[in-house]
Amino acid sequence: HLQEISISPATTLLDYLRQFADLPGTKEGCGEGECGACTVLVGELTNDSVVYKAVASCLFPLGDTDGKHIVSIEGLNQASLNPFQQAMVDEGASQCGYCTPGFIISITSYLLSSPQLDAETAMTALDGNICRCTGYASIKRSIEQVLKNHAGRLLSGTDRLAAAVESGLIPDYFLNIRQQLKKIQKPPELLSARASEKVIHIGGGTDLYVQQGDDLKQQNIRFLSQDESLKRFEEKNNHLLIGAGITMETIRTSPIFANHLPEIGESMKWVSSTLVRNRATLAGNIVNASPIGDLSIMFLVLNGVLTIRKGEQHREVPLSRFFQTYKKIDLEPGELVEHIQIDLPRDNERFSFERISQRAHFDIATCNSALWIK
């Protein structure tokens, strides 16, 4: 159903679902995107198709749902359990049940969008969902059961959504969503905002919501995910231009990085989880200005140069000069990082990145380093 909402756009999607929409199947756990209990599907119209991604709704601003299809666990309800839900029952993969809706949503996202369907990549897609009761063996068996019965059909055709409906994995109303979203898309000029020193820009919000939370409800917000100019991704003349709004998961799965800088794509597996990487942006990682920010270290070595804009004005700043001191950066009020350009290693050059942390997942680096050898 089309929803018109008049509360603060900085309200989290999780709070809206539970407190205003009376959809309590989405659970509140950590509130920081680390447990997966609040996972929902977000469908966005891309190249005339609806692309679904699993996200942590505790870090997702309500205003950024504009023009998108939001699916909580209730949105997967059918007359009977779908194949994955039934497999979870068959394998005893749910005990207290608190985490179960998040697992079901994440696997649904995986089945709808992953170019390959196998147990290993499925478990990677679940890296942001934590179960404290069962362990993961029974959950993995549930996944293997669904893949055995349905992966072939999902991969065989060009219309993944139709195949998923035919397999009973999602309700048939999903087939009408593309047309519904097309009817409510806004012209680009209505999505743009004038340069202002009083605007808070939110890209993924994965750091901002942890740091500021409810304070954002009193701010003038602009959502950068609606700015297509921040999503450029181009290889040219041995350089790579990456839009500020490109997500960590896009970087992890990019064929360009796989070809030229496979170490970066591999390293992204250890940067948070799929749920957070689906939202966290390149610029957010950089302007957060953490001394151990992973992409900052990588792109410093690769001679990164930022393009910064304010209104129609642009300036370029080498990343090596952008960081001035601890948590202080060369970014004035009203300015916005538009993209970064990095050098790509040539045949006689090698790039390497290493990070050390207390845990492999869900941990900031104790130390990280990047090396470019010519």
Helix count equals 16
Strand segment tally? 14
Q: Provide the β-strand percentage band.
A: 15-25%
> Helix and strand succession?
HEEEHHHHHHHEHEEEHHHHHHEEHEEEEE
Distance between the termini: 57 Å
Give the rounded overall mean pLDDT.
Answer: 90
Alpha carbon gyration radius: 21 Å
- Helix/sheet category: alpha+beta
Largest sheet: spatial strand order: 6-7-12-8-9
Spans with pLDDT under 50 lasting ≥5 residues? 189-195
Largest β sheet strand count, sense and barrel closure: 5 strands, antiparallel
Percent in helix: 25-40%
Give the oligomeric state of the chains in this entry, treating copies of one chain as homo and distinct chains as hetero.
single chain
Shape: globular
Task: Sum up the structure in keywords.
374 residues; alpha+beta; three-stranded antiparallel β-sheet; 16 helices
Q: Describe it for me?
A:
With 374 residues, this protein is α+β, with helices and mostly antiparallel strands. The protein is built from 16 helices and 14 strands. The strands form five sheets. It has a five-stranded antiparallel sheet with strand order 6-7-12-8-9. It has a three-stranded antiparallel sheet with strand order 2-1-3. The longest helix has 20 residues, at 137-156. The protein is globular and about 60 Å long. The termini are far apart. The relative contact order is 0.11. The model is unreliable at 189-195 (pLDDT under 50).
